C-alpha cells in the first residue's frame, strides 16, 4: 500500500495529514510546533518535521519507519529555491519519503481549492499568492508581514512607547490614558513589572510566535469593550492586507475569490472596516470580491503537490 503526506508549516504551528492510495485520510496532526527554518534554524526545523511525521504515522497505525510514496511540504519561509533544496536534502536523508517537494506556505491552500483566485495569509505574518503566480509579501517581520499578528503587536508596542516618551509622531497620536488598556494587556501577557521590561522579549529572549500572541488578547479586549486603540490597530491591519491585493490587482480577474488563511481572519469584524474601505477607495479593476475559507487543512493541498511532483 502506498501512503502520501502533506505538511503545512507556519510561523506558529505545523499541520500534517497522511492519506492512502485511495485518498482516504488516515491521520492528522494539526498543532505541531513552528517549522519556520528562518526562525529556528534548518537543523531544528528538519528535526521537528521528522518528529511530526513519525507522530502522524503512529496515529495512523503505521510503523514510524514507514517510507511515504511522496511528501509535499508547504513551509513558512519557503520562498527561496536554494534553501528549499537544502531542506529537501536534509529531510530525504531521514528516509521518510521516496519523493519530496518543498514550497512556500501559500501554495498549499491554493492547491487545496484547485488553484484559483488568490490566497491571502494573515496569521503570525502575512503573504499573498495568486493562482497565476503573482505575489506580494512573505518577507518576514524584519522587512514586512504587514497586517499580520506580529505586525499588530509591534505597532501597538511602538504606540505605547511613543506615548511614554510623549513622542507625537503622526502614526501614534494617542495619550497614555488612551493606551492604558492595551498597555495593561502587555504587562499581563508578558508578565512585566513595567513596560520597559518588554525589551527582554524583543531582544534577549525574542520569540516571534510568542510576541505575536499578544494580538489575540488585544482582539478579545477590542471585541469586548470596543477599545478605540484596538479598533485602530485592526483597521490599520485590515488596510495593510487590502494593499496586498491592490499590489497584484493588474493580474486579477474582475470577480475575485480571496482564500483567507490564518488565525487573524477570526477577527474579521475588526479588520473589515480598514480592509473593505481601502479596496473601495483604491481598487480600479476588481468588480466583485468573495472571501472564502478552507473546510479541510491546507496540508491536503501540500499532499496534492507532493503526489503531482512524484508522478
UniProtKB/TrEMBL annotation:
UniProt-listed SUPFAM superfamilies: Actin-like ATPase domain
The keyword Kinase is annotated on this UniProt entry: yes
Protein name in the entry: N-acetyl-D-glucosamine kinase
Positions of the ATPase BadF/BadG/BcrA/BcrD type domain: 6-267
Domain of life, per lineage: Eukaryota
Keywords per UniProt: Kinase, Transferase
One Gene Ontology term of the molecular function aspect: N-acetylglucosamine kinase activity
Keyword Membrane carried by entry: no
Record-listed E.C. numbers: 2.7.1.59
Highest classification ranks of the organism: Eukaryota, Metazoa, Ecdysozoa, Arthropoda, Crustacea
CDD domains reported in the protein's UniProt record: ASKHA_NBD_NAGK_meta (cd24078)
Family to which this protein belongs: Belongs to the eukaryotic-type N-acetylglucosamine kinase family.
Provenance organism: Caligus rogercresseyi (Sea louse)
Amino acid at each position: 500500500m502506498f501512503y502520501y503526506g502533506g505538511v503545512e508549516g507556519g510561523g506558529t504551528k505545523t499541520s500534517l495529514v497522511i492519506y492512502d492510495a485511495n485518498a482516504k485520510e488516515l491521520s492528522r496532526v494539526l498543532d505541531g510546533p513552528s517549522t519556520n527554518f528562518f526562525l529556528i534554524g534548518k537543523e531544528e526545523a528538519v528535526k521537528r518535521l521528522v518528529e511530526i511525521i513519525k507522530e502522524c504515522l503512529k496515529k495512523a497505525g503505521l510503523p514510524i519507519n514507514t517510507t511515504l510514496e511522496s511528501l509535499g511540504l508547504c513551509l513558512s519561509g519557503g520562498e527561496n529555491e536554494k534553501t528549499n533544496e537544502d531542506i529537501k536534502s536534509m529531510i530525504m536523508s531521514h528516509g521518510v519519503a521516496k519523493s519530496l517537494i518543498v514550497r512556500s506556505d501559500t501554495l498549499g491552500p491554493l492547491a487545496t481549492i484547485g488553484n484559483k483566485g488568490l490566497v491571502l495569509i494573515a496569521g503570525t505574518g502575512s503573504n499573498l499568492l495568486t493562482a497565476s503566480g503573482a505575489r506580494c509579501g512573505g518577507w518576514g517581520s524584519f522587512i514586512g508581514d504587514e497586517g499580520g499578528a506580529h505586525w499588530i503587536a509591534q505597532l501597538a508596542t511602538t504606540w505605547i512607547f511613543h506615548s511614554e516618551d510623549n513622542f507625537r509622531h503622526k502614526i501614534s497620536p494617542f495619550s497614555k490614558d488612551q493606551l492604558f488598556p492595551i498597555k495593561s494587556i502587555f504587562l499581563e501577557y508578558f508578565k512585566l513589572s513595567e513596560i520597559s521590561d518588554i525589551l527582554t522579549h524583543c531582544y534577549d529572549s525574542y520569540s516571534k510566535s510568542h510576541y505575536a500572541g499578544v494580538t489575540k488578547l488585544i482582539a478579545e479586549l477590542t471585541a469586548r469593550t470596543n477599545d478605540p486603540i484596538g479598533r485602530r490597530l485592526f483597521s490599520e491591519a485590515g488596510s495593510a492586507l487590502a494593499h496586498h491585493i491592490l499590489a497584484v490587482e493588474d493580474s486579477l480577474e474582475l470577480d475575485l475569490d480571496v482564500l483567507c488563511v490564518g488565525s487573524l481572519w477570526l477577527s474579521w469584524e475588526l479588520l473589515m472596516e480598514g480592509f473593505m474601505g481601502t479596496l473601495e477607495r483604491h481598487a480600479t479593476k476588481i468588480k466583485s470580491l468573495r472571501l472564502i475559507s478552507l473546510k479541510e487543512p491546507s496540508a491536503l493541498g501540500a499532499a496534492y503537490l507532493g503526489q503531482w511532483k512524484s508522478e
